[in-house]
Amino acid sequence: MLFAWYINVTAVFAGFVDRLIFLFASLTWIRIVREAFNKADLNGDGHLDFEEVLKLLKSLNTDIKKKYARVMFDEADKNKNVGVSKTSVLDREEFVEFYNRLTKRVELEDIFLKFSNGKGYMNIRDILGFLRDGQKIVDANEDQCRNIIDQFEPEGRCKKSDLLSVDGFRQFLISEREQLFNPSHRVVYQDMTRPMTHYFIASSHNTYLAEDQLRGPSQVEMYISALKKGCRCVELDCWDGPDGQPVIYHGYTFTSKILFEDVIRAINNYAFQASPYPVTLSIENHCSVEQQERMAQIMTSVFGDKIWSTQTDLIRTPTPEDLRNKIIIKQKVDKVFHKGIFIFAQGKRLLSITERDADVSDEDEAADIPNNETSVNNNKTKRNSKIQKIKLSPALSKITSMKSVGFKTLEQSAQPDSFFSVVSLSESKVERFIQTNPLELNKVTHNRLIRTYPAGSRTDSSNYIPMPMWVHGCQVVALNYQTGGKAMQLNQGRFMDNGGVGYVLKPPFLLSGNLFTVLLEERFKFVTGNLNRSANSMRNVKLTIISGFQFPKPKNSQKGEVIDPFVKVSVHGVVADEAKFRTKVIQNNGFNPRWYETFSFKVKVPELALLRFTVKDQDPGKDDFIGYYCIPLSSIQEGYRHLPLYDKHDNIYRQSLIFIHITISSA
């Protein structure tokens, strides 16, 4: 009895001491803020203007958008400090209140109080409970808890007493390691010694174009941008240029021309900054033999031993690891220009439309345009019946290590080739095969790379949705990187995995005809009857959209500073997994809107599924796009997680976040 009483008193006393320490620490933190204010008050008048406050916030490690800080600054300036300054200023107490309002997030404090049992601080046991129950980290230990305190707790006395304050908890939850994306997937973790045909490969179409396919500028910078994003296959349309120097542009159009040599030098400088794995140059070669010799000379001189070449039959398909820091040059061994239609505008040939042919490849992209389309903007057309054949120069042939293979039939394409080869399929052709013969299409990808590209009719540089191609195993799904939107958002989500190096290992069922068969129904709907997969491979997802933080105002918006945000969530994968959800609209709150809305859904093929979040601003006309985030389901960390937002050009918003809670369990 006495011992039990002693234990109880000791526990109560320990809790009292913890609370005393935390109270003292909280007061100390206020003192730190006040002292920082005094230090920033250079003229000693007891006031800070807005620009001084921004500098002070930076010194306190508080990241805030300027427009939101301005609104809260004006609200905190209650006294208006008449006579002190011509501009608005805050005194010391106003600044403390301003800072508290700025950093206060009710939804985080509620979670903090829940897992701290209302104490107002977290000890080691509380943090351990949060990691295991809140964040679903079943193997969490006390050393991890102490590491969290050491890394994120701002107040010294709390840190010495192994306590975590609400400010430390907030810093911990918004840290990169606690975001939705699994930090272990930020580095290469997949097996890179499998054949190249076993990977999805980030790929660009007509990489040189900055805008549309007919009149826009060609820019060297577009190659740099794509390579920085992890793109591993870029396209070069090569033509004879003046003074014996080959150029790159979209042939028979008004797109501007850039020097082949400038592009090669840019590729050499940036090819392996984002990824050490091979870069393929997909060359559409329209050059004379003389200028082909110049192309070979330039590439040999600039790339040197980075060029991967093989003059013997391959025993096996090379792997990404085999080809680290190597440049692969891909083109046709010989080239035929087919008869076709040429579009003229103002006396200049604008667009080549070759007639439909069984041998459609990346060199014949215009073949995807319907034959009955004989004009653009009412311009005249002229039929050309000549067939021009161009041979590959010996020098260029010597450094070509990947062959573009003309497509005949799926059955023929599925046969192994002694040469490292790729079959190119237009958007319309691959979609037709998906509808009529998905099994055979997938079978081709077991032995060959399949490259797909946008229809020639997409002269505005729009994109097709890549998911159906990935679902059927196509590896090199080329997109117009200059055009933002759903397609590129999915591409960003797919290739953020595996360290963002541009190579993502395909799931096993895409590499086996038997496993692929059991996932098929008409139009690739999911088979639930004779399913040959464990039910454990399916997933139940429960997602709660809790809140947002510092959403930006839409660019070129005609509305005022305050937005009316809502969040759309979409699931992308096999047809049966496609789903959409959306939250309600929060009026007049872009700084910290709160929803607390929960969505539950089943994912039947989680290996291919992507989860996409889109934030929009409700508008009487068309809702304005704010930002997005796309992530593979397999890369998600469970629990309370923040996720960043990207703009339509895939640039990250530094401070904007969505806060969610997510659990993923076996179905």
UniProtKB/TrEMBL annotation:
Listed PROSITE patterns: C2, EF_HAND_1, EF_HAND_2, PIPLC_X_DOMAIN, PIPLC_Y_DOMAIN
GO biological process: intracellular signal transduction; lipid catabolic process
Matching InterPro entries: C2_dom, C2_domain_sf, EF-hand-dom_pair, EF_Hand_1_Ca_BS, EF_hand_dom, PI-PLC_fam, PLC-like_Pdiesterase_TIM-brl, PLC_EF-hand-like
Coiled coil, from the record: none
Pfam family, one: PI-PLC-X
Domain C2 span(s) in chain numbering: 527-647
Leading EC class: hydrolase
Subcellular location: Cytoplasm
TM region positions: 6-30
Occurrences of domain PI-PLC Y-box (ranges): 399-510
Gene Ontology CC annotations of this record: cytoplasm
Domain called EF-hand: residue spans: 28-63
Catalytic activity, EC: 3.1.4.11
UniProt key word Transmembrane helix: yes
Chief location bin: cytoplasm
Matches recorded under PANTHER family: PHOSPHOINOSITIDE PHOSPHOLIPASE C (PTHR10336:SF209), PHOSPHOINOSITIDE-SPECIFIC PHOSPHOLIPASE C FAMILY PROTEIN (PTHR10336)
Protein name: Phosphoinositide phospholipase C
Organism, as annotated: Biomphalaria pfeifferi (Bloodfluke planorb)
